[in-house]
C-alpha cells in the first residue's frame, strides 16, 4: 500500500512540474519568442522587460476615466455624540423636562443605518491614482432608545411646549426615532492600485443632506405599536464629513456631521459606521 501511495505521489509531482514549466508554442506566443511567455497552472506569465511586454501587461486591466456603480448598498450603525447641557433652566429641560443623558442612550445593535445610493460615479483626475467620487441616494437612520421616551407631534398650538417626555407607566418594548435624508456626497478618492480591478485606497470628503421624513415609533404591551410623524424640531439640512476605506473585496464607510441634528434643545452630533456593498 505504501509503495502504491509513493508511486502516485511521484507521478503527480512529475505531472505538476511538467504542467508548470510548459511554454506556449511559438505560433501562439503574444511576444513572438518561446522564451518570452511561461504557463504556470492556468496563468500566463510574461517574461522580459522590453516595451512590447510592458504594453501587453498594461492591456490586462485598463481603468476607465469614468466608472459608474448602480444601486450601491450600505449597512451599518447610527449613533450620535451627546454634548447636551442638561439641568434646570437649560434649553434641554424646555425640550425634554427632567431629562438627562440616560434618556437618549441608544441600543447599539438596534440603531441601524441603511444607505441606498442610486448611482455612484468615479472620475479620473490624476492617472487614476486621484479621482473625484460622488453619489446620490437615500440615507436612513434609526435610533433605538433604551429608555421609554415619547416624542410628541409639534403643532401650531403647542409650539414651544415639551417635545420629549418619559413614560414610566406603560410597559415599553420599543422606542425608536427615524430620520431619513436625501444625500449627495462628494469625495476625493486615492486609489493605490489603479491597474488592479479590486481597489485598495480611501476616499474623503463631505456630504449635503436634506431631511425628507422623520417619525417616532413606540411599542407597548398596553397599546401595541404607535407611530407619530413630525420633524420634532430636527435640522432640515445636514452637512457631514464622509469617508470610505477600500480593501479589495470589502469596503467600509463612515460619516460625522458638522453639528447637532436638532435645531434647539439637544446638542447631538450624528455619525454612522458600516460596510459598503458594491461591485
Q: Describe it for me?
A:
By secondary structure, the chain is mainly β. It has two domains: about 1-60, no CATH class; about 65-275. Helix content is about 10%, strand content about 50%. The protein is built from three helices and 13 strands. The strands form three sheets. Strands 3-4-5-8-9-11-12-13 form an eight-stranded antiparallel β-barrel. The protein has a two-stranded antiparallel sheet with strand order 1-2. Strands 6-7 form a two-stranded antiparallel sheet. Strand 9 (about 200-220) and strand 10 form a beta hairpin. The model is unreliable at about 1-5, about 15-35 and about 40-45 (pLDDT under 50).
Task: Describe, in short, the structure shown.
This protein is mainly beta and 279 residues long. Helices cover 12% and strands 49% of the residues. A hairpin with a 3-residue loop joins strand 9 (200-220) and strand 10.
Amino acid at each position: 500500500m505504501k509503495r502504491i501511495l509513493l508511486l502516485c505521489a511521484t507521478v503527480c509531482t512529475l505531472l505538476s512540474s511538467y504542467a508548470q514549466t510548459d511554454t506556449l508554442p511559438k505560433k501562439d506566443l503574444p511576444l513572438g519568442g518561446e522564451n518570452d511567455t511561461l504557463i504556470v497552472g492556468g496563468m500566463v506569465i510574461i517574461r522580459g522587460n522590453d516595451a512590447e511586454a510592458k504594453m501587453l501587461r498594461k492591456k490586462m486591466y485598463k481603468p476607465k476615466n469614468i466608472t459608474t456603480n448602480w444601486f450601491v448598498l450600505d449597512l451599518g450603525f447610527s449613533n450620535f455624540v451627546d454634548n447636551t447641557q442638561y439641568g434646570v433652566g437649560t434649553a434641554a429641560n424646555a425640550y425634554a423636562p427632567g431629562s438627562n443623558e440616560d434618556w437618549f442612550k441608544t441600543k447599539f445593535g438596534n440603531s441601524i443605518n441603511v444607505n441606498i445610493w442610486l448611482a455612484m460615479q468615479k472620475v479620473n483626475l490624476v492617472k487614476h491614482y486621484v479621482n473625484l467620487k460622488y453619489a446620490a441616494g437615500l440615507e436612513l437612520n434609526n435610533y433605538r432608545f433604551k429608555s421609554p421616551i415619547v416624542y410628541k407631534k409639534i403643532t401650531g398650538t403647542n409650539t414651544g411646549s415639551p417635545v420629549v417626555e418619559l413614560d414610566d407607566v406603560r410597559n415599553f418594548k420599543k422606542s425608536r426615532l427615524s430620520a431619513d435624508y436625501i444625500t449627495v456626497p462628494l469625495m476625493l478618492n486615492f486609489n493605490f492600485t489603479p491597474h488592479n480591478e479590486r481597489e485598495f485606497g480611501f476616499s474623503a470628503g463631505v456630504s449635503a443632506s436634506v431631511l425628507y421624513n422623520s417619525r417616532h415609533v413606540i411599542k407597548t404591551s398596553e397599546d401595541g405599536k404607535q407611530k407619530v410623524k413630525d420633524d420634532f424640531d430636527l435640522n432640515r439640512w445636514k452637512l457631514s464629513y464622509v469617508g470610505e476605506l477600500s480593501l479589495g473585496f470589502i469596503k467600509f464607510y463612515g460619516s460625522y456631521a458638522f453639528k447637532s441634528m436638532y435645531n434647539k434643545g439637544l446638542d447631538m452630533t450624528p455619525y454612522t459606521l458600516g460596510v459598503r456593498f458594491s461591485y
